[in-house]
Amino acid sequence: MSKEFLKIAEDILKNLDNYTGRQKEFYVRTGISRAYYGLIWYLRDRLSKQGYNFKGKNLHSYIPKVLASLGRFDLVKRFEILKAERNDADYNIKSEFKRLKTLDKRTLRAYIKDVHLFISRLGV
């Protein structure tokens, strides 16, 4: 399922120039959210194979705990940043952003790249 979420984010990025104004903003927000959920599902699937049980757990808060238990504090910090950026995209108006600066093609491209980089650094 993770690949499908990331594919949707990448498709949004590829087609983003077809939109303008608020519509473009909504697609950037959606693309960031889909990329984040691609990461969440990827981590859940990969870490489950290592014996971690995610049933009944809040993935957003449990995944950092699992990463910390693996000694991957670098990834914990990066995950929290990606989560905060996704929260900005999903819940905040621009003036309330805590992490994101803009909602444009460059932002979405960088976010998707960061998700892929995170996955490559996990190495599980």
Summarize the structure.
The chain has 124 residues and is mostly helical. 73% of the residues lie in helices and 0% in strands.
Fold and architecture overview:
This protein is mostly helical and 124 residues long. The chain contains five helices and no strands. The chain has helices at residues 2-15, 21-48, 59-69, 73-91, 105-122. Helix 1 packs antiparallel against helix 5, helix 2 runs antiparallel to helix 4 (73-91) and helix 4 (73-91) runs antiparallel to helix 5. The longest helix has 28 residues, at 21-48. It is globular, with a radius of gyration of 15 Å. The two termini are 17 Å apart. The model has no long low-confidence stretch (mean pLDDT 94).
> Tally of extended strands?
0
Computed Rg: 15 Å
Strand content: under 5%
- Runs in which pLDDT lies below 50 for 5 or more consecutive residues are none
Helix percentage range? over 70%
SSE topology string: HHHHH
- Class inferred from helices and paired strands: mainly alpha
Question: What is the topology?
Answer:
Blueprint: H1 2-15, H2 21-48, H3 59-69, H4 73-91, H5 105-122
Helix pairs in contact: 1-2, 1-5, 2-3, 2-4, 2-5, 3-4, 4-5
